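PROTEIN ENTRY
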Amino acid sequence: MTPARTPAARRARDIGLDVRAPKAKCDDRHCPFHGRLPVRGQVIEGTVVSTSMQRTAVVERTLLHFVPKYERYEKRRRRYLAHAPPCLHVPVGHRVRIAETRPLSKLVAFCIVEDLGEAARRVAGEEAAGPAAPSPTPETEAKA
């Protein structure tokens, strides 16, 4: 007879996607790695915008849509509410991969399955972060 495994000794299970399993363990029943939540359907990449809710994150995906009349692109975005398992520890600003699951609540039907690391900062985002130091002009250098 093989000894029965306790839930704490359970290893991360294979969820059927080409993602790395988290090193930390959790006892969340809605975790696709350590719980019983199956993943199926779409797999989407986006950026975590908010983690204010309990075990839920807002993931935003931006895309460019071509407008033929003006021959230009417009930026569109879509926000998804996704379950954030405690074993992944995903902070705001990281790129993540989310996978579709069965509905977990009225608005949550995705789950974060992989943390892809910190997202590259946009140039506009860096300018809005704070005022830039004034560049020295020949007049100010002569005074110094």
